[in-house]
Amino acid sequence: MNKLKLMFEQCTDAILGINNQGNICFVNGACEKLLGYKSNDICDSPCFGLLCEHQHSNIDSENCQKKCLIPDYFPGQTITKDKDIIIQRANGESIMINVGAYYMPTANDDVADVYFSLRHIDCQRLLSRMNEKQCQSQDNKSDKHNPLTDREQEILRLASSGLRVTSIADQLSISLQTVRNHLKNIYPKFGVHSLSEAICYATRKKLV
What's the domain range around 118? Predict the structure, then answer.
């Protein structure tokens, strides 16, 4: 047993390994517990039947690699992305899991070419993930355009350089109240409540 396999045997994460033929050749104890199958029940069977069959019934084992719902594993390529999929446990229960894949090329059919780490996504984790995606989406929308007017950007740039509000008004030859009004208009555009927060946000988004 190689060091990697030994480490995965003792790992508390659910680990599933497949060989270069796409057949399951390694299942650790945590994976048995997560899926409800014993290692002997699923070893030598194609990973398609366990991880993908529940996703699209029109995908067969011969071409599932081309349409794989988990990250593709082709020789010479490193797998970095994770995917969320729904699978069925041995008792028929459907659960959502996050799958990460790690390519370990070998020429031995008995040794895993790809190791999958399987993580159960419970309701709390799913809600947290949905919130993260929503925040990322909002950030991406903000990144696509600068919501500030030229004057607002100029005031924020001066503020980020360390000038006080009174100095900004003097430099731009506008009233103190006008500067404050511009700042009040900036805050809701960034979803912040103070000048320091606005400067931090604008700096992070490279708007100043």
Answer: 3-123
